[in-house]
Amino acid sequence: MNIYAIPLLKRRIKKTWYDFLYSLFLNPIVEFLKSRIMLRTGGLIIAGLAALAYYKYSKMSEEEKRNMANNIKAKGRKLYHQYVPNNMKNMFAQGQ
């Protein structure tokens, strides 16, 4: 074996151990932190949208609130009649 090849072999082993340790311990930690940052940002956006919706709803008149509720109910009924199979509708009707 060549004398000069031993340090190269040691460096190669250290690099593979480093890669192994990185993929085993550090990479999951980094990925976890990235996901936490994305969750915080997404949560902040959702909270902002909820606050905006609450502000707009609080500024509506009673008639506008009633119209909005009736509109949502009508859309829900339409989706129910359009997508729920008849045998499921009959099961729900029997429970009433």
Explain how this protein is built.
The chain has 96 residues and is mostly helical. It has two domains: 1-59; 61-96. The chain is built from three helices and no strands. It has helices at 5-58, 62-83, 86-95. The longest helix is centred in the first third of the chain and has 54 residues, at 5-58.
According to DSSP, the number of beta strands is 0
By DSSP (H or I, 4+ residues per run), the number of helices equals 3
How many domains?
A: 2
- What integer value in Å does the Rg equal? 30 Å
State the end-to-end distance: 86 Å
Structural class: mainly alpha
Query: In sequence order, what are the helices and strands, one letter per element?
Result: HHH
Compact overview of the structure:
This protein has 96 residues and is mainly alpha-helical.
Features:
96 residues, mainly alpha, 3 helices
Helices, strands, pairings?
Elements (H helix, E strand, L loop, with lengths): L4 H54 L3 H22 L2 H10 L1
